Amino acid sequence: MQISTIYLLQLSTFLFGLAIFLHGFFPLSFSSTDKADFQDFPRNIDEVQLDRSQYRERFSRTVIMLIDALRMDFVQQKENMPHMTKLLANQEACLLKLNVQPPTVTMPRIKALTSGTIPSFLDVILNLGSSEVKTDTFLQQIEASGGKLVFYGDSTWTRMFPRFFVRKGENQDPLFVNDFYEGDRNITKHLSSELKHPDWRMMVLHYLGLDHIGHAEGPFSPKVPGKLREMDEVFSKIVFEMTRWNAHSYLPSLFIVTGDHGMRDTGGHGGSSAPEITVPLLIIGTNCSSSNTMYNQIDFAATLSVLLGLPIPASSIGNLIPEMLKDLTEDEQLFALAYNGERLLQKLRFEHEGDFDQEEFFLQHMEARELHKKYVKTKQIDEVVNPSIFKRSNLFYLSSAQEMSNLLARSFVKYDHWSISLGLFVCFLILTASLVLFLVNRNDDLCIGWTSYSIVSILIGTLCLKHLPKKFFNIDSSLFSSGFMGNTIILTTIVITRINVEIIRIAVQERQTSLMPKMHKIPIFAIFCTVFHAISYSSSSFIEEEHQLWYYFGGSLFVLLLGCELRRFRNISVDLLISQGRRTRREDLKELEELNGVVLRYLALLAGHIFLRRLNQTGDKWLSIPDIGDWFVQEEHKTMLSWFFILTLLLMLGVCAQFTGVLTSVLTFTAILLIYYYRATTGQVYLFNISRSDSTVSLILFWVNLMEIVAINYLPILYRRFFLKKILQKDGNLWIGATITVFSLISCLLHKPHNAILNVACILTCQVVGKSLEAILSGTPKIYMLILSHLWIGKIFFFYQGNSNSLASIDLNAGYVGLSSFNMPIVGLFITINTFSGPLLALLVMLYRLQSDQSNRKHQSKTFLQTCSIFLILPLTLYMAIATGFRNHLFVWTVFSPKLLYEAFNFSLFHVILSLLGITWCH
């Protein structure tokens, strides 16, 4: 088997091991489908009977107004929502704070609000599908009690709860972030008529416009105050109708305003910054009191169920919010607290089989029961109860329930440890085999034979892996219970193990060199930094601020290359520099010109990277500091942005002209004109006072223009290859060059105008670094360093764009360029291109440079795939082990897990690209 083929198979099998690991690390949290009922209520405390009639319905109607991405500070600014502010000032409403658990995306947060459970972290991906919820919720309890539900807003609700709403009006494209107003107006239009209907018990409204503005323009957009005032008008309309309802009803009505999640300072959500995880809870209609105490979002379902006289959802692990229970008598409060406390204690006993008798929360709960019993007995004999008895019982119930809730929350996600171990084993085995091949520098083919012993060992290994862990170690896993699929996975794992063990044995026994040949200091420096970076993943701070490490590595590499370049010219004498070429040899003049060119290139490179580093703040610590991008998007600086964008597009034309012919350059010029015209019609840049208008025509022409570039460059190559059976030496460069041009144009279209310069800078940086490496190094070290340096550059430009290891930094707005509705494949493709444009563009330029070198093609293909394999597999494998070790860390879901998803997606993306382009180049 060819070495190149082995490395490609190693990438594919590593993807298999990664998938098993992710299956174990991100298990779906299948909550119980049990439903709560009134039989769950406590009947007595020891010999003292409790009055169950104290648990009753208190409101005739309830309106829940969910404003997507409503941050806490939005409602604290008085000018944003004057009607709401007035009610708070008059103490006719109360304001509380809710803490939202990551991931801060809509579907998991709706699940948490309605059921009181903590969704799986993987729900951040399932958010796009929003399948039906089988878990018990207060919506199901209302329906079971005969109440009617109506809904208007985000269609996520109707996909999650398809059978509950008697009337509904859906926003069919909740992920279409360019809709700031139309969807919300439709909700309000339905609301006006629905408020007149007397038949429903609960109405849910989910407004999306604020979230869309945040994705597109951020929380400090001038559109945000207007949108909040629009929400305040809706709020005022509902409050006015509540007054009318209360005058004609035997029970008052309840109005609740909250957000599913917040919004980070740079727009978007999904991470764990304070503005993302802190949302307001506004209550009108009950005698509650405002408080600065932070409650959990999962506490809402249990508390609302108590207020509505419903059984608390069976899956709820939340505590009660005491500020919302002020309308209840002391007896009723203690009954509700005892009910929820007993539920949580039963859940905890079911989840943990240990003995809790000596735990503080258990002792507090038992003390609360004793005080509660004393309170009831005293009341039954008509004696005055000491107020401290109620206060202490109330306090102990709340304190113990909070601790039980926290324990249940920490243990809610159950890792599939066997899948994690199996995935890690496969990945480390593949890494070991790849490193052995790398160190022994094997160039010829490997012959892996299949003997009867191999087949028997595979079958025995499959049986052992299937049955022994469960039988002797009591380790359970979904791999053991998934039938055919589980057997296939286990069999594949054993085959991969057998092949890699054979690769290691053959490579070691038949090694051609004992170790790698002596390498230049630049590759050694790069390898050391890459390994150090992988080890740095063990620190959550290094993950949050990873960009700082890459900026430091990149700057160090540039300075090191400049120093090595200057050493090549150390023979130029001082007299030559002073004479500036008078009566000197032609060779000396040429060398002096080359020296001047090197110095100017690196001065421009370092100055440019200083500018790009400040273009977009990223990470966590300095995210809120204004950057150049923030300055550009301000209205008063739009003229400057327009000229900057024009300069960027002209530079893009010049850069792309290096890779293609004259006709393609003409079409590229037309394409950049259309890109600028599109941004002008959308109001992001100025063009001869052109006002905003429909941008559809310009985008249609752009895509037609792009198809012409594709046809001109790709069709002749395909014709020669498949019809003439002839491949020209230049075809590889033409193919990749055209791909660079097409990708750069699409990326420029999707990028924000001030970020389009990153495509130009990425290509130029790759060219400067590549040219220096070819002058300094030769042979295998040169190829190693070319590949490593381009991988580095891709990482640097990933962070220059404003990306980070937080899911909130993904720019969803790029996915909707030119779309009038949500289209999953197109949106996904656009977001991927925009987010990973730096790494992908650096990879394409690397392939172009390697394709230009026609010497020793077989050795080049082996070295190319070898280096890519090692330095893609090594950091990810180490990080998988680190994430496993930190699976109980405080920041596992806010820092380590998002990074794991990024790295897994990045590897999968590179695997696809290497398969499509790398194999074409190799063969």
Number of strands: 10
Structural class: mainly alpha
Q: Strands of the largest sheet, in order across it? A: 6-5-7-3-8-9-4-10
Helix content: 55-70%
Q: Count of helical segments?
A: 34
Q: Give start-end ranges of low-pLDDT stretches.
A: none
Outline type: globular
Largest sheet: 8 strands, mixed
Structure commentary:
The chain is globular and about 115 Å long. With 923 residues, the protein is mainly alpha-helical. The strands form two sheets. Strands 6-5-7-3-8-9-4-10 form an eight-stranded mixed sheet, sandwiched between helices. A two-stranded antiparallel ribbon has the order 1-2. 61% of the residues lie in helices and 6% in strands. Helix 26 packs antiparallel against helix 27 and helix 27 (696-722) runs antiparallel to helix 28.
Describe the secondary structure blueprint for this structure:
Layout: H1 3-25, E1 44-45, E2 48-49, E3 61-67, H2 72-76, H3 82-89, E4 93-99, H4 106-115, H5 123-126, H6 138-144, E5 149-154, H7 156-160, E6 165-171, H8 182-194, E7 202-207, H9 209-217, H10 223-247, E8 253-258, H11 274-277, E9 278-284, E10 294-296, H12 299-307, H13 330-351, H14 360-380, H15 387-410, H16 417-440, H17 452-472, H18 483-509, H19 521-535, H20 540-544, H21 546-567, H22 574-579, H23 586-613, H24 628-633, H25 638-656, H26 662-681, H27 696-722, H28 731-750, H29 757-776, H30 779-800, H31 824-835, H32 837-852, H33 857-885, H34 892-922
Parallel strand pairs: 3-7, 3-8, 4-10, 5-6, 5-7
Antiparallel strand pairs: 1-2, 4-9, 8-9
Helix pairs in contact: 1-16, 1-33, 1-34, 4-12, 9-10, 13-14, 13-15, 14-15, 16-18, 16-33, 17-18, 19-21, 19-30, 19-33, 21-23, 21-29, 21-30, 23-29, 25-26, 25-29, 26-27, 26-28, 27-28, 28-31, 28-32, 29-30, 29-32, 30-32, 30-33, 33-34
